[in-house]
């Protein structure tokens, strides 16, 4: 059976409005970063998100795409996610992450890059990194995430009510579980990194 992140990791990617906690340890990711003036409608963001997703899809083909992967198992590529940081003076900086299964390594990434058309991006704009999300609180948002999005208010209220601390006041993570580009019908997971302040996190998911 093909591994599908939405089926096999429902606690991490669940479409649940009630705020929940995830503690996501170091994994491998395809990454790209840049600046955007129009959030997820920004052409630069969409260009790099598409490029990263293209490479991730090539890697997911494994041996069928002549990608050398030891212990390969068929899987659905993970969704694009992005960390958004508000910039002084306007606009945002984004960093795109696409999680990779544990059996995917730098050699698979390098092989996939040799099979990728670079017409719309430069080779050095994409990277393979080992990163950890840390402890986050998450909920869902319907459509693009704005500053006054109900999801952000829901999370900030939960942080305040439970005595936690938000780690970065100007930063949040979006996981595009229904894909890009966004419209008002697509669901986005929204996550804020928190300091639990030594308090228990009920139902926290460790991965």
Task: Describe the structure in your own words.
This is GyrI-like small molecule binding domain-containing protein. InterPro entries: Reg_factor_effector_dom_sf. Strands 1, 2, 3, 4, 5, 6, 7, 8, 9 and 10 form a ten-stranded mixed β-sheet that branches. The longest helix is centred in the first third of the chain and has 18 residues, at about 45-60. Helices cover about 25% and strands about 30% of the residues. With about 210 residues, it is of the alpha+beta class. It has helices at about 5-10, 10-15, 45-60, 105-115, 150-160; strands spanning about 20-25, 25-35, 80-85, 90-100, 125-130, 135-140, 165, 170-175, 185-195, 205. Strand 3 and strand 4 form a beta hairpin. The chain is globular. It has one domain (about 15-200): Regulatory factor, effector binding domain (Multidrug-efflux Transporter 1 Regulator Bmrr, Chain A, Alpha-Beta Barrel). The model has no long low-confidence stretch (mean pLDDT about 95). Helix 3 packs across helix 4. It is built from five helices and ten strands; from the N terminus they run H-H-E-E-H-E-E-H-E-E-H-E-E-E-E.
